[in-house]
Amino acid sequence: MAATTTRTSAADFLPASRDLEVLAEAARSCRGCELYRDAEQTVFGAGPDRARMLLVGEQPGDREDRAGAPFVGPAGRLLDEALVAAQIDREHVYLTNVVKHFKFTRAEGSARRIHKTPSRTEVVSCRPWLFAELQAIEPDVVVLLGATAAKALLGNDFRLTQQRGEVLRAPDVDVDIVATIHPSAILRGSPDQRESALADLAADLRTAAGLLSDGDR
Ligand code: URA
Ligand code: SF4
């Protein structure tokens, strides 16, 4: 009987190079988990390869899946507001996600694609791309947006509610880390708390920016 190999992780598709363009190209044909099947395309990170700050979300949304770029939909617009409030130039940061394909369900009889949180297995399968991006860029600070990103680097027991906004370190990466709320959580939250939640996000981004020299923001 012929031997069969089971591909279970992005690691099987990772090139040796740590050039961002080479990585992004390789990620286009990743089959490290099942999520590539239903999504339109891989959404790799975007931004300068010399960025001093790297921001990590959960996974692309509907708009990102269509556009092929991270944070270009409603969550991205809210993130933009927070970046402006924190005096961080979006052009200077590298934006990416822990999971590079959009995971969704469809409501019965509807064409609308509804975000579904990726499983721990999918996060672990896809994480090699994030580690490769970190190796390519070697940022001075990483901002983890939301619990999925936070747990991906800080461990499954990490509690965002207890440690958001603190400067942290993770076992596998030699970089300062700040974990904060995901802009999508603000969008889902109650409208009368939007302003204060956005201010809290901006404050955490400012904490992260405080770890950089002025010219790197
Ligand atoms: N939410 C994310 O976590 N990432 C995106 O790119 C868009 C929405
Ligand atoms: Fe590969 Fe990640 Fe897409 Fe899964 S989600 S197929 S591991 S790029």
TrEMBL record:
CDD domains per UniProt: UDG-F4_TTUDGA_SPO1dp_like (cd10030)
Lineage: superkingdom: Bacteria
Keywords recorded for this protein, A-Z: 4Fe-4S, DNA damage, DNA repair, Hydrolase, Iron, Iron-sulfur, Metal-binding
SUPFAM superfamilies registered for this protein in UniProt: Uracil-DNA glycosylase-like
Domain Uracil-DNA glycosylase-like stretches: 44-206
GO molecular function, one term: metal ion binding
GO biological process terms on file: DNA repair
Similarity annotation: Belongs to the uracil-DNA glycosylase (UDG) superfamily. Type 4 (UDGa) family.
Record NCBIfam families: UDG_fam4, UDG_fam_dom
Name of the protein in its database record: Type-4 uracil-DNA glycosylase
